[in-house]
Each structure stands twice: as structure tokens, then as C-alpha cells.
Amino acid sequence: MSGHSLSLAINGRERLLADRLIAFEPAAPERTETVAVVGLGYVGLPTACALHDASTQVVGFDISRQRLLEIETGEVDLPAEERRELAAALAGGGLALTSDPAALAAADAVIVCVPTPVDAARTPDLAALQAACRTVVAHARREQVIILTSTTYVGTTRQLLVEPLRELGLRVGEEVHVAFSPERIDPGNFDHVQRRTPRVVGGVTQRCARRAAEVVRRMTDQVYLVSSPEAAELTKLYENIFRAVNLALANEIADACSVLGLDPIEVTVAAGTKPYGFLGSFPGPGVGGHCIPCDPHYLLWQLGRRGLSAPLIEEAMRSIDRRPGRVVQRVVEMLGEAGIDHSGARVLLAGVSYKAGVRDLRESPALPILAGLRRLGIDVHYHDPLLPEIELPSGARMTSEPEPRGRDWDVTVIHTVHPGADYGWARDCPRVLDATYQFDAVPHRRVL
């Protein structure tokens, strides 16, 4: 395992499984002069920057000219230091931006990093991934390495890359090399930088796996090889399904703590002192972002098509979906306890992004919370220094309160606390509902 410990709750015996994974050890490196990154979103842009930091010539491809303009001008959701590094990469010519797919043909390796969301029915929406893979296949050439990183259902790599390449007459594993290596990027978390986060690679053949690992190794110190793209695809789904189930459990424990008069954060931290058999999460107002609310549905959808069910995962996802409604219910309860008719009451949501320190609204619990409060006739507003304007699923647009005053609101809901932001005004609000369970700046706050 090359010194890397497994995160397994198996009573400390993970050392017995060391031979189940193959740690990639690079030999004489292949000549990979240029790497093209397809899709420059929350995964693709950091991927391109990490490759550039490894002295790789990078071509960043995106079909959105607006996105390319945002990158060129530095208007992207990156920390200040990484924005400076991005500017230097662009100025020095080591990172070239383009919306011309023909540029992909000149690359020695192509990494696909496009979104894989779910639709309103929680069905996988592969439109962006299908389009990206069609483009990559159309410009593929011999000796190229193609790596899919987007989270998806098992078999996608073969379906969208391997089979179309073979139809073009390219022999996968001999003339072109294809692999799946799931992204492991944690936006806003500086404890999980790419260089220190191990990656998994599953190739169509052993040769494919090694060629792909040589590319991925430029971004991380540790790469592990698994037997196939399918094994790597399910690895990523399992990672995020575990998080979903764990977060659903954390919220249930928090509800139990509320009934028993206990602090769920204290209980979770105390349980976390056990060095084996426990991997805890903290409760909150719901689960947002590109991964946890979406990825488990890829496996549920695939199993459902085969007549199979996964009751534990299904119930965890239902529990996650219900969580924002619990916040709305608690707001109504607090208003009722104060003798305030919720129709026309003024409520402020503090923070709306799905995660502290990022400008990402995707799948944020704030969206159904705001919508639910509005449906009840509550005069609801929000304050978020990172998101000056947002759009609800209904199409309604809202603008952030730039300088809120606590006494202007009947209830303030603490949803997302951004690092460095001033929330001192919340102390003046008569009723504060802390949906993070950790906002202790207001002594009279209440939790879900």
C-alpha cells in the first residue's frame, strides 16, 4: 500500500488487505506532451491547474464561451492563491483555453470532466457526458490516452468510449488507451488537496490502466490500479453512497439528541475518539452539491432497470430529500411559539450555498427551504456574501440582503456559515434557528 492506510471500519485489520490493491509504480514515463481537459467546471479547472503545476502542457476545452471568459478574467470559484496560479498559467502559455474541439486531436491524453446530474425524477442525466464523449471520440487518434473522470453508472466508460472507438476501427488497448479514474476533488477544503489525495484507475486493459495512471500520477502522489473501468466506476458510487447513508444517519441521531436534550456535535466528536469501527458525520439542514444528492441515484436507477432494489440506500435518499422540510417545519414552530402568524412573517436565511466557502448552489438545501417558506406566505429573504443573486427552481429570482440587521427578522435560519464572513448581526435577532448545529455565536440560538 506504499504507506497509505485504508479507511475501513474492520477493527484495525486493514493491513491484511494490503495485497488487494495494486499501487502504481511508474517506470520509464511515456511521452505525454500535452493533456486536454474537456469541461472546465468545478472538477475540470482544478484538474487543468494541477496538471500545469506538474509542468504539463494543458489544453482546456469547454463549449461555453462564457465559462472560458470567466476563467480568462479570473472570475472563478477558486481561492485567491489558486486564482493567481491560474493567471500565471494563462499568461505563460502553459494552459491554453479553447472551444474548438479540433484541438483535442493534438493532445496525447484527454481527460473528460463534465457534470453528471440527475433530472427532476432523479434519473441520470447524461446529456453533457454523452456529448463530450462523442466529441472526444470524433477527434481521437492512435496512441492517445482517454480518461473519464465524471461520476456515472457502471459500464458507462465502455458504452460511451470503448464501443464507439472500436466502431471507428481503433483497437482499444493497442492503438488507443481508455480508463476510468473517478475525480476526488473536495471544493473549499484545503485539507484534501489533489496532490495528497489518492486516486483509483481502472483500465480496459492493463496497458490502458498503466498509461492512464501515468497521466493521473501527475496530479497525485498515490495511484491505485483496479481490475476494470467498471470496478472504478462502482468505487466512486460506493464512496458517495456511504456519505449519503452516513449523513442521513447523522441527521437522525441529531433528531434523537433533540428529544433527549443532548448536543449531537458533542456526541459525534466523542464517538469519533474510537480509533476503529466508527466514521462519523455532522448533521445539517440537508445535503447539497454535485455528488451526494445525485450519485446514489445512478446506482439505484441501474439496479431498478434490472429489477433489483437497495432499500437502505433508497431510504437514506428519501431521508435526505425530507430534511429541508424539517427546517421549514421548525421555522413555523418557532413562529407559533412566539405568537407570530407565519403568513407575512419575516424570515432570513443566512447562507445559501451548499457548502461553506464555495459559490456553488447546485442541489443546495437552501433552495427547497426558501421555496417551502415562500409557499407558506412567509416573507423570506437571504444573505450570502458569495452569491449576490440566485434563482429558485420556480424561476423566481432573489437578491442577497447586503447588510442585514438582526432585529428586522422574526427568525434567522443559519444555513451556511462562510469563513471570514461577519455574522455578528445575528445576535440581534430574537429567534435564531441553527441548522448547522455549530453556530454558537448566538447564545439564544436553537437547533433543529
- What's the CATH superfamily of the largest domain, by name? NAD(P)-binding Rossmann-like Domain
Main beta sheet strand tally, sense and closure: 9 strands, mixed
Arithmetic mean of pLDDT: 94
Structure summary, number of beta strands? 16
* Class by alpha and beta content: alpha/beta
Which outline best applies? globular
What distance separates the N and C termini?
Answer: 42 Å
Can you tell me the CATH class of the largest domain? Alpha Beta
Number of domains: 3
Q: Poorly predicted ranges (pLDDT <50, ≥5 residues)?
A: none
- The Cα radius of gyration reads 23 Å
Helix content bin: 25-40%
Mind explaining what this structure looks like?
This protein is an alpha/beta fold and 448 residues long. It has three domains: 215 residues, 3-Layer(aba) Sandwich (Rossmann fold), CATH 3.40.50; 73 residues, no CATH class; 135 residues, NAD(P)-binding Rossmann-like Domain (Rossmann fold), CATH 3.40.50. The chain contains eleven helices and 16 strands. The strands form three sheets. It has a nine-stranded mixed β-sheet with strand order 1-9-8-7-6-5-2-3-4, sandwiched between helices. Strands 11-10-14-15-16 form a five-stranded parallel β-sheet, covered by helices on one side. It has a two-stranded antiparallel ribbon with strand order 12-13. Helix 4 packs parallel to helix 5, helix 7 crosses helix 9 and helix 10 crosses helix 11. It is globular, with a radius of gyration of 23 Å. The chain starts with 21 loop residues before the first strand and ends with a strand.
